[in-house]
Design a protein that fits this description.
This protein has 2 domains: about 1-85, no CATH class; about 95-140, no CATH class. It has a two-stranded antiparallel sheet. It is elongated and about 70 Å long. By secondary structure, it is an alpha+beta fold. Helix 4 (about 120-130) crosses helix 5 (about 135-140). It is built from 5 helices and 6 strands; from the N terminus they run ββββαββαααα. About 20% of the residues are buried. The protein has helices at about 35-45, 75-85, 105-115, 120-130, 135-140, and strands at about 1-5, 15, 25-30, 30-35, 55, 70.
Length: about 150
């Protein structure tokens, strides 16, 4: 059962079990289900085939208040994530702050300079820096690290 404060704008925080990611979890008809999904389907507008995802207006994962949850798509949920900067490690973060970065800015500058001067292949640079050749290629063509000047 959620905590239901009197404030009409306040979130209703799920007080039961939660997934590790923070969403509430319930068992309904012998099935494990997100508490926010249950709330949307049974007390809110409900999901449809063309809008199968339960999304939060409030960005609060344990919130189950029906007015804070809407039916959307993976695309609308991803767009929401970008607009609200909820996942900067994957979407908005560039350079060394990107959780997936394999190289530092200084390494990219050095790789670009060495490759531009000739005499060394992308494959050799990749082995030296412990990355895939495709990573070096992406650095060279500006696909990765576009904000850094290229020689």
């Amino acid at each position: 059962m959620p905590d239901r404060p009197e404030d009409p704008a306040a979130c209703w925080i799920w007080q039961g079990c939660t997934y590790r990611c923070g969403y509430g979890v319930i068992y309904f008809r012998d099935r494990r289900l997100g508490a926010h999904i249950f709330s949307l389907d049974h007390f809110g507008e409900g999901r449809t085939l063309d809008r199968p995802i339960a999304c939060h207006h409030c960005d609060n994962r344990p919130c189950v208040r029906p007015s804070h949850i809407y039916a959307g798509t993976m695309k609308t949920n991803a767009r929401d994530m970008v607009l609200r900067d909820r996942h900067p490690g994957i979407v908005n973060s560039h350079g060394e702050t990107n959780y997936n970065a394999k190289l530092t800015a200084a390494q990219v500058v050095a790789i670009r300079a060495r490759y531009a001067s000739g005499g060394i292949s992308q494959a050799s640079l990749a082995r030296e820096y412990g990355v895939a050749q495709q990573t070096v290629s992406a650095c060279m063509n500006g696909q990765n690290w576009p904000s850094l000047d290229r020689p």
